[in-house]
TrEMBL record:
Main location: other
Transmembrane segments: 7-30, 82-105, 117-144, 164-184
Membrane topology, record value: Multi-pass membrane protein
Protein name: Claudin
Amino acid sequence: MTSAAVEILGLGLGILGWVGVIVACGLPMWQVSAFIGGNIVVAQTIWEGLWMSCAVQSTGQMQCKVYDSILALPAEVQAGRALTVIVALLGLVALLVTVVGAQCTNCIRPGKMKSRIVIAGGAIYILCGVLVLIPLCWFANIVISDFYDPSVPSSKKREMGAALYIGWAATALLLFGGCLICCCSCSQRDETSFPVKYSAPRRPTSNGEYDKKNYV
């Protein structure tokens, strides 16, 4: 029962991380305007994401525009698009695989195969966390490098947006949830690797003696 509860906890964390990746992928706040000038009152704030850029006016109005050309985008944006979409699809696969092999479901009979399927689901969750971490760290490195680069104009400097922090939280959930799933499945596999075998009791014959076939 304890391993099943840990497995469900890991699955729940993996689902939360998967949803967080989807939210971070859709948000346009991967990079935001940096307020480094003397006057903090600005006319608009710029948000830049994987799919669109938005301009938020001081009056509260927001205008967003989807990027026109995919090939004209920077390499980090193209890589971020590809990896986040791949992670979103892999997260769905991990969910289905883990549910099929979970202890609380009867899709497959308990045994080594069931444990291996759950381990595969946890490994896919861990892979999702590693893949989504690549564009997040790439964006963060570019933002930090440009911010401290004196050759970059102040109007072009950006800060890390909320989508990066959501993505990092989702990465932690994916990695932790995948590790929990793999660990509890491995422990369950070790417990069932040496099954106890019971032999049938010997029955006496009609004359009161034991049948000789019981000794063969």
